[in-house]
Amino acid sequence: MKDTGLLTVLDETFEILDQLMEKDRTLIHSREVGKITFIGKGIARITGLTNVKFEELIRFPGNKLGIAFNLDPDEVAVVMLGDSKDIKAGQEVYRTGRVMEVPVGESLLGRVVDPMGRPLDEQGPINSQENRSIEHEAPGIMERAPVNVPLQTGIQVVDALIPIGRGQRELILGDRQTGKTAIALDTIINQKDKDVMCIYCAIGQQSSAVARVIADLRIHGAMKNCIVVVVSGDDPPGLNFIAPYAATTIAEYFMEKRRDVLIIYDDLTRHARSYRELSLLLRRPPAREAYPGDIFYIHSRLLERSTHLREGGSLTALPVVETEAQNIAAYIPTNLISITDGQIYLSPRLFHEGILPSVDVGKSVSRVGGKTQLPAYREVAGDLRLSYSQFEELEIFARFGTHLDEGTRNTLERGRRVREVLKQAQYEPMPVPEQIAVLLAVTNGVFDELPIQDITDAKVKVQKAVVEKLPDLCLRILSGEKLKKEDREALLDVARDAVNSKKGEKIK
Q: Which residue of 215, 263, 265, 479 is most buried, as measured by CB atoms within 10 A?
């Protein structure tokens, strides 16, 4: 008993000593003063901070902050997190003894903030009770669980052919103006009634484009479960660099509370360019395409934080990257393709032909695949990807010949109807039972007798009829039950009735 009491006293003594030493360290940090020797666009060089640590926050005149990036023997190179026009060489700076942190918690829901957690939406201050460092180690292997729960995007071509699971990292890539952000927005809008938190991180975009995105999210009721982290192209490159890390820290708070979270990085091409700009200003040696050699590590340590935790909670990442002239073999796209669990490639050719969303099925892949689909969906769409890819190849070759056998003509006609069914307008996500009904109908020839121009209207009729006539079956599909033979027949009968009513209207 006496030994136990002595140990308790020793523990209390050591705790008091730790508190005193922490206070002493804080005082030392505040006393350590450096001097600015050079100030440039987004960076500063400082002497006198001999004990500064990597990524420590440095306080500049005017209460502005920077992050220590280069720790050379004679000087420290600092990345600025704010405007540096009023800062001049010769001024004094101070260590803070802290790293970059961002507020986290429920108070951020529905808000628009910058990477430092400052509100941008004129809705008052954010009353967060907790701050967290923007840099965290990714969960270990033993902390992770398999990705086997679907994250429904509401986009039929994605859910059917390139399924995404909760905890997956699926890259969205394509040239400018091909609908990359539209895919991300529709996915966010489809989560509004599914208890999935959404983080949209806009990196280096025009303020007007981000304002449109926020307005669309509010119009469709998706902002209540969403947080928008914004940094524009006019902001310092340092803010652009920390933005995705700050957004991920905000998302991890909810994941650790056993919530499912979706995060969009729009886009990592601009993030890479910001890091390249900083690295060149800091005189770090350039590598391929003038990017620094550690750009792969920069993105991998970000995306590795997305996972499905064994104890519940998941973080699904949809990074966006922009290609130039459809070159997916460029440095940044190939890096991100190798880091992620698949990619959705958007084709400019399909976009200009009016096939929207312009997903190129042949170049898109989900490395998790059908494991994340509901059983009913897996039964209906199992062979659809292969048959659709074969149709696209066959259509290209058929252009060079005029004499086609009947089997080839039937395959082409069926493929064109599948393609028409997979077309989808923006902001119109489809529930899973409706998707299954439409796909089952088109793959079983229900639409074969309809002209191509009537497919869209017939598809809408089938969607409505399934919801109205088979509500119990819709619930069973969503609960994860497999389709029985009688269920398939019921879906096909409803689809045929809807298509026949469409034909009757046409005759009248």
A: 265
